[in-house]
Amino acid sequence: MIIAKKSLGQNFLVDKELLNLIVNLTSIEGKSILEIGPGTGNLTSLILEKKPKKFCVVEKDNDLAKKLTKNYKNKIKIINEDILKIEESFLFSEKIKVFGNLPYNISTEILSKWITNLKDNFWFDCLILMFQKEVADRIIAKSNSSHYGRLSILSNWKLQIKKICDIKSGSFYPKPKVDSSLLIFTPKMHFYPIKDSKNLETITRIFFNHRRKMLKKPFNQLFNGNKKILDKLKIDLNLRPQNLDFETYYQLAQEYENLKS
Q: Which is it for strands 172-173 and 77-79: parallel, antiparallel or unpaired?
C-alpha cells in the first residue's frame, strides 16, 4: 500500500469523473506527453489509453517510481527526479502537452521557473495543471482585485490562461484541507517584448513589496521620478500596485530595460 508523504505535498486525485474530464481536455493520440507527479498512476492509465506517441512521467518519490516501473514497464519513460532540477525543454525534441497535479508546496515555484525560462519558441502546446485554489485565484487574477499581484502579472505575460473548474478536497486521497482548481495554459501568439524576464520580476517585486502603499516610492526607486515615463504610460502615482493592469507592468519592464541599456 502506498502512503502519501506530506513532505512531498502528495494528494492523489481519485475522482474518476474528473480524471476523465482532464484527459479529454486536449488531443493525446500521436502526441508527446509529459506528466508531472503521476503518483499512483490514476491519470497515467487514462493517458495511455489515448495512445500517445511518447509518454514521459516525472516522479520524485522513489517508492512511487518503482511502483510505476512495475505497473507500466516500457510503456512509459519514468524519470525519478525533482521536476525543479530538470531542464524541461530538453525532455523532448518536439512540442509537448503537459499534465500535472502539482504538489501544493512547490507549485508556484514550478510555474514561475517554467515561465521565466520561456523563450519565444515554446517547448509545449499546453499545460493542464492543478493548483491549490488560492494559488489558482492569484494566477488568473485581474487588476483591482485582492488576489492580483506578481504571480498574476508573470503568468499572463506569455500565456493564455483558462480556468476549467474548481475541485473539492474530497476528490483527492488523502483529503487535503483546501480545495483545488484546474487551469489550462496555452502560448500567446503575441506578447509584450521584454528581453529578460528578470526585469519583469524586479519591477513586480519592488512595486508589490508594499502593495497597500502608493506607487510614488517604488516608481522613484526604479525610475528616479522620470516624468517622461509617467506621461508616456499615463501613470497616476497616487494609485496602488494592484491598480495597474498587465500591460502597464510590461511597459514598465521595457522602460526599465531601456534605462539599463
A: unpaired
- With 90 as the cut, is the pLDDT of residue 210 above it? no
Give the ranges where the chain is alpha helix by DSSP (H). Answer: 16-23, 42-49, 62-72, 107-116, 133-140, 150-158, 197-208, 216-223, 227-233, 246-260
pLDDT band at 5 (very low <50, low <70, confident <90, very high): very low
Q: Could you tell me which residues are beta bridge partners of residue 213?
A: none
pLDDT of amino acid 72: 94
Q: Look up residue 100 and give its three cell numbers.
A: 500535472
| Domains of the chain, earliest start first | 6-187 (3.40.50.150), 197-260 (1.10.8.100)
Is the separation of the CB atoms in 183 and 140 below 8 Å? yes
* pLDDT beyond 50 at 7: no
For residue 58, which of 28, 88, 27 has the smallest C-alpha distance?
88
* 8 A C-beta contact, residue 34 and residue 97: yes
Nearest residue to 88 via CA among 119, 54, 52, 114:
114
